[in-house]
Design a protein that fits this description.
Layout: H1 10-14, H2 17-26, E1 30-32, E2 37-40, H3 43-50, E3 55-56, H4 78-85, H5 95-106, H6 109-133, E4 135-137, H7 138-143, H8 145-155, H9 165-173, H10 182-208, H11 214-220, E5 222-223, E6 226-227, H12 230-260, H13 263-271, H14 276-286, E7 292-297, E8 301-303, E9 306-308, E10 313-317, H15 318-321, H16 356-373, E11 378-379, E12 398-400
Parallel strand pairs: 2-10
Antiparallel strand pairs: 1-2, 3-7, 4-12, 5-6, 7-10, 8-9, 11-12
Length: 401
């Protein structure tokens, strides 16, 4: 592969899009030796493979590690492996089907609808405090606390414990980067053990005294006698927090950075807040918060004459797919009123983001409040990117009002 795909380079992380264009021009599948993955850059392929049952988030429902030609994870990683392995994101049928069905009973569109006023209230409180301060770091003051507060509220985590959630989540999410270091793994294992122990206590409390929260609903959810095991409940709660805020936080700050770099589009949005729903979708497409998703190849597949054998791993490049000119007109242009926008930032197929409706409510609430309460908001300092490429976001976003 001759293209400068370098997920560990700060320059690449800051702007991967020219490299994606070169990858798309160079073919439909590229083997990347440092991670032993096949990079898939085109929209049609990424979208198709997300729905293709010959690929999976795990292979353990069909093969042992040995049969699949992969080493088992180190025993020392067990708290993380167990936590991650029982979550919806890393399961396949039949377990995925059963757990998703049970979780969906607790996490319905009605649940999200009922939460919407709470989301708007929390967003308004955070933005009011931010405006009273005269600005500052939008990431720390608004983007991060909002989804964490919403998930904590949903799960029924007492306010006094909420500060624990974000550091646990950040440590666990470190493992989703490419080739994580042993130090990253140790932090993730510690956080997995602590978070699991905390949730075990919360679940025990709710069993004795159910409330009007998601954990109580997960305990009660059953289907023809089937229930979630305690580990499945714990893994579900952790996944809801991790997935439920990493993407929302990064869409918020990356989105504002994008708007500041496109003053004409920002002006149009300030003049017409009714554009907000299509604006949120376009910001999700234009600078995708999750750049890459991995799948195992469970049965040989062929892409453009290249056979990718069973046992391989593909890296589906969401950020590249969302800028593919074969699917999007003028893909490198930001168009907040883009009418036809089937971006794949929230996935597709059986692993489509369960929390997508909630994410949209949160994004509309925080962008809406900031547009209303801080109409003159502008960038105070050029932001820096975090080193992570898979979950791609800024270290901070300093603004003045």
């Amino acid at each position: 592969m001759h293209v400068s795909f370098d997920p560990w380079s700060p320059a690449f992380v800051a702007d991967p899009y020219p490299t994606y264009a070169a990858l798309r021009a160079g073919g439909r599948a590229h083997y990347f030796e440092p991670t032993r993955q096949w990079l898939i850059p085109h929209y049609a392929d990424v979208s198709g493979l997300l729905r293709d049952r010959r690929l999976g988030r795990t292979y353990l429902h069909r093969f042992s590690h040995e049969e699949f030609g992969r080493a088992a994870p180190p025993a020392a990683h067990e708290p993380f492996t167990v936590l991650n392995g029982q979550g919806l994101l890393d399961l396949e049928a039949p377990d995925h089907t059963r757990i998703r069905r049970l979780v969906s009973k607790a996490f319905t569109p009605r649940t999200v609808e009922r939460l919407a006023p709470t989301v708007r209230r929390l967003a308004a409180e955070l933005v009011d405090a931010f405006v009273a301060e005269g600005g500052g770091d939008l990431l720390a003051a608004v983007a991060e606390p909002l989804p964490v507060a919403v998930i904590a509220e949903m799960l029924g985590v007492p306010e006094s414990d909420r500060a624990l959630l974000r550091p646990w989540s950040a440590a666990i999410c470190g493992m989703y980067e490419l080739n994580p270091s042993e130090e990253t793994a140790r932090a993730a294992v510690r956080a997995s053990a602590d978070f699991s122990a905390y949730l075990r206590g919360l679940i025990a409390e709710r069993r004795g005294k159910p409330g009007d929260d998601l954990i109580s609903a997960l305990i009660a959810a059953h289907d023809e006698g089937e229930r979630l095991s305690e580990q499945e409940m714990i893994s579900t709660c952790v996944l809801l927090l991790n997935a439920g805020h990493e993407a929302t936080v990064n869409t918020t700050v990356n989105g504002w950075r994008t708007l500041f770099r496109h003053p004409d589009q920002l002006e149009a949005l300030r003049a017409d807040h009714g554009m907000l729903p299509t604006a949120v979708e376009e910001l999700l497409r234009y600078d995708t918060p999750l750049q890459l998703f991995e799948r195992w190849v469970l049965d040989d597949i062929e892409i453009d004459g290249t056979v990718i054998p069973r046992g391989s791993e593909v890296a589906l490049l969401f950020g590249s797919a969302n800028r593919d000119p074969e699917r999007f007109a003028r893909p490198d242009e930001l168009d907040l009123s883009r009418p036809d926008n089937p971006h794949i930032s929230l996935g597709a197929g059986i692993h489509y983001c369960l929390g997508a409706p909630l994410a949209r409510v949160e994004l509309a609430a925080s962008f809406g409040e900031l547009l209303r309460r801080a109409p003159e908001m502008r960038l105070a300092a050029e932001p820096e990117w975090n080193p992570g490429f898979v979950i791609r976001g800024l270290k901070e976003l300093r603004v003045e009002l």
